[in-house]
């Protein structure tokens, strides 16, 4: 069985300014603060990353751990950012963030696409993993919204 692509798209509306939200989500060093799968990052991750920048991330997604090697492939600040990764277990990932200002709110879209290989992992993904990963993605957007909105209200964002 060849690798099948899974695509997960989630949205959230955040009371924030577009440039601030973009810089925050495109700074991987912030990810462990709002995404439950992101455990630890390695490299120059404490700034918004641009095309060609690379870093590594340890994750635990759907109960499975992996080391991801990311490279930013698109950056059109402040509206589009994407990166590709290869996991040490062979999974290929594409992560895209799309942002748009609507009045005093930012519409944030997170799209995660990934491919697992082998019939067993494809079956496991279909039966279980994709639902768990989708649930973790939904949690991450709720946490991102709360974190950014609190930071904006207290003017404590870095």
Q: How are helices and strands ordered from N to C?
A: EHHEEEEEEH
Structural class: alpha+beta
Shape verdict: globular
Order of strands in the sheet with most strands: 1-7-6-5-4-3-2
Short characterization:
The protein has 158 residues and is α+β, with helices and mostly antiparallel strands. It has 3 helices and 7 strands.
Structural overview:
- By secondary structure, the protein is α+β, with helices and mostly antiparallel strands.
- About 30% of the residues lie in helices and about 45% in strands.
- Strands 1-7-6-5-4-3-2 form a 7-stranded antiparallel sheet.
Features:
alpha+beta; 158 residues
Summarize the helices and strands and which ones pair or pack.
Elements: E1 4-14, H1 18-25, H2 31-34, E2 38-42, E3 54-61, E4 64-76, E5 80-87, E6 92-102, E7 105-116, H3 119-154
Antiparallel strand pairs: 1-7, 2-3, 3-4, 4-5, 5-6, 6-7
């Amino acid at each position: 069985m060849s690798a099948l692509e899974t695509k997960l798209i989630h949205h959230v509306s955040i009371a924030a300014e577009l440039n601030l939200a973009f810089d925050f989500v495109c700074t991987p060093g912030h990810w462990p603060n709002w995404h439950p799968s992101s455990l630890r990052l390695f490299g120059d991750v404490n700034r918004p990353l641009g095309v060609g920048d690379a870093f590594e991330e340890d994750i635990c997604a759907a109960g499975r751990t992996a080391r991801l090697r990311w490279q930013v492939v698109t950056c059109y600040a402040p509206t589009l950012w994407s990166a590709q990764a290869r996991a040490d277990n062979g999974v290929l990932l594409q992560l895209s963030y799309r942002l748009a200002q609507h009045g005093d709110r930012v519409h944030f879209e997170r799209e995660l696409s990934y491919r697992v290989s082998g019939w067993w992992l494809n079956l496991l993904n279909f039966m279980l993993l994709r639902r768990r990963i989708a649930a973790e993605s939904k949690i991450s957007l709720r946490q991102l919204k709360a974190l950014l909105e609190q930071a904006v209200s207290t003017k404590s964002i870095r």
